[in-house]
Design brief:
7-stranded parallel sheet; globular; binds fructose -6-phosphate
């Protein structure tokens, strides 16, 4: 795992967008997994700027990480709509190059299995962006999710519903259930980039990065991934014991290596 500590969210966005630009340069039809929530927005803004400066995303493909169950199709806070707004529209990527699980399906169990097949048929995810919940979740894999899990229905913790209530009229509006790529599914992506911003994430980040591998901290599974990059702002890195080591390692890293 590589830990990169940068001054602020725009710097995080630039670094992650640079990795995506490099990937698309090598593989124009790369499948890029996107996360929703607040943390990755600077990445999408940075990609939009790069596109305005000539980055060609014409063949890139986008896939979704997770979705609420039961919001009607087209609901503005369904993650499908959020990805449309924040990623596809910004980057000029058409619907036919976008894939996601259908949280409004009558049979959500089948929707999960369908999505696993879709990802496999697409050749797997090349780069997956991840945020982290204050309870250590990745995707919507809440504490004690199996490290071997596949895309499935999960129940949100109260803490996650409270954290996400800001996107809805109130806590009661936040769905209880979600579809999420499983931890096993996420771990098959060729490169994982986890972003965390702000003091509220510092404890979860420290547990994930420097704590024991534990299902109660789902993000700790990144310790097992051969290519995982964790990009933090100073506040999110605030509880890391080895922060100075991570800083000096990154400062002396040859530029050609990228992240
Ligand atoms: C969203 C997702 C979640 C969020 C996490 C952090 O697709 O998978 O794991 O990344 O809840 O959310 P923010 O970035 O809003 O703090």
């Amino acid at each position: 795992m590589e830990i990169v500590i940068v001054p602020d969210a725009p710097a995080q966005g630039d670094l992650a967008a640079g990795a995506i630009a490099d990937l698309v340069g090598r593989k124009p039809d790369a499948l890029i997994g996107v996360a929703t929530g607040s943390t990755p927005l600077p990445v999408y803004e940075a990609l939009q700027r790069r596109r305005e400066q000539g980055l060609n995303l014409d063949r890139a493909r986008i896939c979704q990480l997770d979705e609420y169950v039961g919001l009607p199709a087209g609901h503005p806070e369904s993650y499908r709509e959020v990805v449309r707004r924040e990623v596809l529209d910004r980057l000029g990527i058409s619907d036919d190059r976008f894939m996601g699980p259908d949280g409004s399906a009558a049979d959500v169990v089948k929707a999960c299995a369908d999505y696993e097949r879709t990802l496999a048929a697409a050749g797997g995810v090349d780069l997956q962006l991840l945020g982290i919940g204050t309870d250590g979740h990745i995707g919507f894999n809440e504490p004690i999710s199996s490290f071997g899990s596949r895309t499935r229905v999960k129940t949100l913790t109260k803490q996650t519903r409270v954290d996400n209530a800001r996107f809805f009229a109130g806590l009661d509006e936040v769905p209880q259930h979600v579809l999420t790529q499983g931890i096993g599914t996420i771990m098959e992506a060729r490169h994982l980039i986890l972003l965390a911003t702000g003091e509220s994430k510092a404890e979860a980040v420290a547990l994930a990065v420097e704590g024991p591998l534990a299902a109660v901290v789902p993000a700790s599974v990144l310790q097992l991934h051969p290519h995982a990059t964790v990009i933090l702002d100073e506040a999110a890195a605030g509880q890391l014991k080895l922060a100075d080591y991570y800083r000096s390692t990154y400062a002396t890293k040859p530029a050609w290596q990228g992240i």
